[in-house]
Specification:
- The chain is an alpha/beta fold and about 400 residues long.
- The protein has two domains: about 170 residues, 3-Layer(aba) Sandwich (Rossmann fold); about 220 residues, 3-Layer(aba) Sandwich (Rossmann fold).
- It is built from 13 helices and 19 strands.
- The protein has an eight-stranded mixed sheet, with helices on both faces. A five-stranded parallel sheet has the order 2-1-3-4-5, with helices on both faces. It has a two-stranded antiparallel ribbon with strand order 6-7.
- β18 and β19 form a beta hairpin.
- It starts with 5 loop residues before the first strand and ends in a 5-residue tail after the last helix.
- The site of ligand PMT has 26 residues, from α9, α11 and β16.
Length: about 400
């Protein structure tokens, strides 16, 4: 139930506007307090009176109509909302928000709000796939706006493809998920590694990689919010550890291995998103290596594989690896599941736009040891973190069920 949660539903002008009536009615039955804002073009598809009757609240359309509340209306709605749901969201409203345009009641309210904003896009396939629309979605997703991927099928314009408003159940479930943060990992001990490792060549130079730690820190933040006791073993990053998380700073692969082993015993779940260097210089010189006229050859030796070591000693713990690939993403990632005895792996193509190192978004495949594959489309790293934790929760529940004695 959404008892008392304040949801502002923004309806923009598309044929799917009529489905917003069903969404509003479903949210109302869940006891949410709802206000509706319509764009002018949405009123061509559905009368404001319909939403007024469903919500028992006045419907806002124009910026400068006589106020229905004492406060400035768009500010008042923006501030009172726990969630702003834009359904259907046209290319126009997405484009306006992505580019800072606030020229009507809906765009102004979205801009003035610090609430969670969820877009449920609906439009023609070619429009949805248009690079400009996709870039706007990428930009907003990276800023923490949520997107519900549209469904595929026959569209009102006769085309067949992606662009149909996601079904009402999916949208209502998404709102529930965002409005009521779950505490489904309460009491679970979870260790996450994040960031790069740094392998010393001499006091001046080192070998490292492009990891910023954003992916791992997002998992730590999401797990903490869901009630887990989180230990974050991190290579050097510019990030601040999320509140409530135990941070264990490390530098090299060897120091990360030690930190993981020191904190291993009491963990229920271990997720390895760190980008660990496979090699380190055979010797870390104590003084600066002086430049000569000739070339310099460095001998690199293998670093320990932390994940492989964990696989051998995991017992009943859930062990999750990451795979950073540039080719044959699924095939190579699957190879790592069996080799490192993982429950599942999160594979990302680090060459794909919006994915991998340094970005605020990612695109991943979650592949488990029973060959189930789930793709998570372009989303913020925080959103991806939640999908990974949903899978962790499922694996924990399965393990618990396996432990139950059979009922005769
Ligand atoms: O930090 P960001 O900028 O947000 O970027 C995120 C990310 C791209 C680093 C992340 O999404 C990611 O893919 N992390 C894994 C990087 C990696 O090292 O992948 P890999 O395919 O080389 O290694 C496979 C797994 O083995 C990983 O879980 C890794 O942590 C682990 N490993 C690898 C080598 C080693 N010596 N020890 C390990 O434990």
């Amino acid at each position: 139930m959404l008892n008392g949660k304040k949801i502002v539903v923004g309806v923009s002008g598309g044929i799917a506007a009529y489905k917003a009536c069903d969404i509003v009615s479903r949210l109302k039955k869940l006891n949410a307090e709802i206000d509706v804002i319509m764009t002018k073009s949405a009123t061509e598809f559905v009368q404001p009176q319909t939403f007024q009757a469903l919500t028992q609240n006045p419907v806002a359309v124009e910026m400068f109509e006589s106020p229905k509340y004492w406060d400035i209306e768009h500010i008042s709605l923006a501030q009172k909302a726990d969630i702003l749901l834009i359904a259907p969201a046209t290319a126009n409203i997405i484009g306006k928000v992505a580019n800072g345009i606030a020229d009507d009641m809906l765009s102004t309210t979205i801009m003035a709000s610090t609430a969670k904003v969820i877009f449920a896009p609906a439009m023609n396939t070619k429009m949805y796939e248009n690079r400009i629309v996709q870039e706007n979605i990428e930009k907003l997703a990276a800023l923490g706006y949520y997107f519900i991927t549209p469904a595929s099928g026959r569209l009102a314009c006769g085309d067949v493809g992606i662009g149909k408003l996601a079904d009402v159940d999916t949208i209502v479930d998404f709102v529930l998920d965002k409005a009521l943060p779950k505490q489904d990992l309460k009491g679970v001990n979870l260790l996450i590694t994040a960031g790069p490792t740094v392998e010393t060549i001499d006091p001046v130079r080192y070998i490292t990689n492009r990891s910023t730690g954003k992916m791992g820190y997002a998992i730590a933040e999401a797990a903490e919010a869901r009630g887990a006791n989180v230990t974050l073993v991190s290579g050097p990053t510019a990030l601040t550890a999320p509140k409530g998380v135990k941070l264990v700073p490390t530098t090299s692969a060897v120091s990360m291995l030690e930190a993981v082993m020191d904190n291993f015993e009491h963990q229920d779940v271990i997720i390895k998103s760190a980008a660990v260097a496979d090699y380190r210089p055979a010797i870390a010189a104590e003084s600066k290596i002086k430049k000569t006229d000739g070339d310099l050859q460095l001998t690199l030796v293998r670093n320990p594989d932390i994940l492989m070591a964990l696989g051998k000693m995991k017992g009943s713990r859930i062990l999750v690896g990451f795979a950073a690939e540039t080719d044959n993403v699924i095939e190579y990632a699957k190879g790592k599941i069996s080799k490192k005895q993982l429950d599942f792996i999160v594979a990302n193509n680090v060459k794909a736009e919006g994915a991998g190192f340094g970005t605020d978004t990612n695109i991943v495949y979650i592949i488990d040891n029973k060959d189930n594959i789930t793709k998570v489309d372009l989303s913020s790293k925080l959103e991806i973190a939640h999908r990974i934790l949903d899978k962790v929760k499922m694996e924990l529940d399965n393990k618990r069920e396996d432990k139950q004695p059979p009922i005769h």
